[in-house]
Design goal:
The protein has ten helices and seven strands. By secondary structure, it is of the alpha/beta class. It has a five-stranded parallel β-sheet with strand order 5-4-1-6-7, sandwiched between helices. A two-stranded antiparallel sheet has the order 2-3. α9 links the parallel β6 and β7.
């Protein structure tokens, strides 16, 4: 394996906390929220937005099931900033240390193009990255191999010299299948150890 020269971070729950209950916390209790997510297939709807579907269309699909669901989905996206809970403890320090070492830093995130501007506000360390590839802008989302191919091509990466970090096992496996050095994120302490073993951090 070549010495890694680039590190690609997933963002949600790796760099910035995401709790989708937040935007609706003043309208639903946590149990009510959980009932809504199951009945409306909220996470399936969210994946549509991540893959590039306009938020208005996603809300209309929810409203087709139940007008109340449509209202809740619209409010979720309208108040999306409340879903972001701030930097994940320890990750910002790792990114700063990698930046100081001159390592290329990129992001690859499943995120609606219409709400992505909230991310660097909630976790300013994202601005340390050279660029972030956003699934909603690309029209394809992880773990589809196509978005990894686009990442490699767009930023002229050598897969075997690129470390990819994500909290999702399926995304990690997809990256590995294309030759990237993929790590599952379970916490900043473990990530720092993993990057140390790869020779990226002291």
């Amino acid at each position: 394996m070549e010495n890694p020269s680039a590190v690609v971070f997933d963002l949600g729950n790796v760099v910035v906390g995401w709790d989708p209950f937040g935007p609706l916390a003043d309208r639903l209790s946590r149990p009510e929220w959980e009932e809504f997510t199951e009945a409306a297939d909220f996470f399936g709807l969210n994946r549509l937005a991540d893959a590039g579907m306009p938020v208005a269309e996603v809300s209309a699909i929810a409203g087709g099931k139940n007008p109340h669901y449509g209202d809740l989905v619209r409010e979720y996206f309208h108040s999306f900033d409340k879903a972001l809970t701030g930097p994940i403890p320890g990750t910002a320090g790792i990114i700063e240390d990698l930046h100081a070492e001159g390592v290329r830093l990129l992001g690859l995130t499943n995120w609606s193009a219409e709400t992505f501007d909230c991310a660097p506000v909630a976790a300013p360390v994202i601005n340390r990255m050279e660029a972030v590839m956003v699934s909603g802008k690309e029209g394809v989302a992880k773990p589809d191999p196509e978005i990894f191919r686009r990442l490699v091509s767009t930023y002229a990466l050598q897969p075997q010299a690129t470390v990819f970090i994500d909290d999702s096992v399926s995304n990690v496996e997809a990256a590995q299948s294309l030759g990237l050095v993929a790590l599952q994120f379970v916490g900043a302490d473990q990530l720092r150890q993993d990057l140390n073993q790869l020779g990226l951090l002291n």
